[in-house]
Hints:
By secondary structure, the protein is α+β, with helices and mostly antiparallel strands. Helices cover 17% and strands 35% of the residues. Helix 2 (11-18) packs across helix 4 (34-40). Residues 3-49 form the F-box domain. It comes from Triticum turgidum subsp. durum.
Amino acid sequence: MESCEIARLPEELVSAALSLTSPRDACRAAAVSPAFRAAADSDAVWACFLPPLADQPPLADGEALLACGKKDLFLRLSGSSVLLPGGLMSMWLDRETAAKCYMVAARELSIAWRDTPQHWTWIPLEDSRFSDSAELIWVCWLEIRGKIHSKMLSQGSTYAVYTVYKLAEEPDGLNFPVNASVSVGGSILASKVCLQRDPHMIHPEDVALPHQRVDGWMELELGEFVCEAGEDGDVSFGLSETESLYCKSGLILQGIEIRCKN
């Protein structure tokens, strides 16, 4: 009886209700109720989970945005990242919330001594999203900075910032804590992080440690922030050690990721 009553509802009304939920809820509605399926899969619902057309990135190999349905496009943009024009930033959608997420390539970051070959070199890696990554040969002064404009993000979403990297075979000096910071709207979150886990060292509980990703890279959280409604400015983030000045080497940096924290 309940399914019959649901089936009598106008599809436009069901679509309007589902568009106020989330991608996950829309998929659940399509799966649990045949009466909801047509509305839950409609362009009217999935268009609400996509960025405005002007903000949608070009897809790889010239794939046309308008050639597929809105749900297919969402699944495409949430299934893997796409490179933005210039090749120095990639973007994707969070599958649960539809929030826009990004990775900023190492080439787009401000890295102290990056153009000095005895300190940093640029290497191509097949499993990198970008054309090359930055490999740290050795430095005493480690400083990596980046930023993204808040208008590129999804307002009302909570984001976390991650350094995405690998370690060379014999890294040096990366098992000591370094400074991390995330700032937005005049508010600065500072913390201590460590790029390399070392079973022989015991760090304070407030020092963040890296985690292995399924794609073979490592990630280290630098901090989190909320992209408030009406925010209009840069979100800045960084990683540095400029006080103890001990030798550091063996970091292979792909970029810094800004993604929704569910």
